[in-house]
């Protein structure tokens, strides 16, 4: 009897925690689809009315269409660069013996220990000096540099777990080092690459400080800084704000749901490594 009561209490606590955690998201969705009068009269009522005007206002007046395009222009190349550099670095540190390998790996991992706030001001002046401040290449390079250290560490864990027999068998068949890496090793870590791609894309998409600091003119505003600017002029009209927030988070939610299995397999493999 005590066991049944204890189990019921635990389930009740979990249900309450789930409701508390999910209610703000549900309220955000409801606010985005409610009419302005309904939001003003009863802001906490869920789905009291239905309209798409808030999304039209956010997309047209808030320029969220251009913000989404800018975010994609920044995130896709940065993610691709992180994947290329991290996969190559992880493979080199895990499978290729060379002098100073351990020292070089620790120097790369040092990037995980230094917070962005420690070098964001010097980086501003460096970008301005070399002419990359307030440019798309400059923003992409900064976003890329923030993900290479973790990506290299992440991919090294995958490559380190692969059996040596794979390499030996490929060498017996006459494969070169490039063929071993491309045709033998790389297909074995596809789940890790997929997980790193999702993780890196989410970090780039949600990044707020990089475009705010290194694109001061506002020519290259992604969804994060665009939402910030939209909120400053729409602080009393919560409907378009909620719609803009949904536009901001919808792509990353869809990406995560679509690749949830690959992400789970990837991080599980990294933990094992």
Overview of this structure, please?
- With 273 residues, this protein is mostly helical.
- The protein has 2 domains: 2-51, no CATH class; 64-272, MetI-like (MetI-like fold).
- The protein is built from 14 helices and no strands.
- The protein has helices at residues 2-33, 36-41, 53-60, 64-95, 101-113, 120-129, 136-161, 164-172, 177-185, 190-206, 209-214, 223-233, 238-258, 260-272.
- α10 crosses α14.
- The longest helix is centred in the N-terminal third of the chain and has 32 residues, at 2-33.
- The two termini are 43 Å apart.
- The mean pLDDT is 86.
Compact summary:
This protein is mainly alpha-helical and 273 residues long.
What is the CATH C-level name of the largest domain? Mainly Alpha
- Shape, per Cα inertia axes: globular
Number of helices: 14
Low-confidence region ranges: none
CATH architecture of the largest domain: Orthogonal Bundle
Give the helices and strands as they follow along the chain.
HHHHHHHHHHHHHH
Q: Structural class of the helix and strand makeup?
A: mainly alpha
The CATH superfamily of the largest domain appears as MetI-like
Strand content: under 5%
State mean pLDDT (0 to 100 scale): 86
End-to-end C-alpha gap: 43 Å
State the helical fraction. over 70%
As for the number of domains, it is 2
CATH topology of the largest domain: MetI-like fold
Radius of gyration of CA atoms, rounded to a whole number: 24 Å
Q: What's the number of extended β-strand segments? A: 0
Summarize the biggest pleated sheet: none
């Amino acid at each position: 009897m005590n066991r049944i009561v204890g189990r019921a209490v635990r389930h009740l606590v979990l249900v309450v925690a789930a409701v508390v955690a999910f209610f703000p998201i549900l309220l955000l969705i409801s606010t985005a689809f409610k009419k302005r009068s309904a939001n003003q009269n009863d802001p906490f009522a869920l789905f009291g009315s239905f309209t798409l005007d808030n999304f039209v206002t956010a997309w047209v007046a808030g320029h969220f269409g251009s913000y989404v395009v800018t975010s994609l222009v920044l995130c896709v190349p940065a993610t691709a660069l992180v994947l290329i550099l991290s996969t190559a670095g992880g493979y080199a540190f895990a499978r290729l013996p060379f002098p100073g390998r351990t020292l070089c790996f620790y120097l790369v991992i040092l990037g995980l220990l230094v917070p962005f706030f420690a070098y964001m001001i010097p980086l501003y002046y460096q970008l301005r000096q070399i002419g990359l401040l307030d440019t798309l290449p400059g923003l992409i390079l900064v976003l890329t540099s923030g993900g290479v250290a973790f990506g290299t560490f992440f991919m090294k864990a995958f490559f380190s777990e692969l059996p040596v027999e794979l390499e030996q068998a490929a060498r017996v068949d006459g494969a070169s080092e490039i063929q071993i890496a491309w045709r033998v090793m790389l297909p074995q870590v596809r789940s890790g690459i997929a997980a790193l791609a999702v993780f890196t894309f989410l970090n780039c998409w949600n990044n707020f400080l990089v475009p705010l600091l290194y694109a001061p003119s506002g020519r290259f505003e992604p969804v994060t800084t665009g939402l910030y600017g939209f909120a400053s002029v729409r602080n009393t009209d919560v409907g378009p704000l909620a719609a803009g927030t949904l536009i901001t988070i919808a792509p990353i939610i869809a990406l995560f749901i679509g690749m949830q299995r690959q992400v789970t397999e990837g991080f599980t493999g990294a933990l094992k490594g």
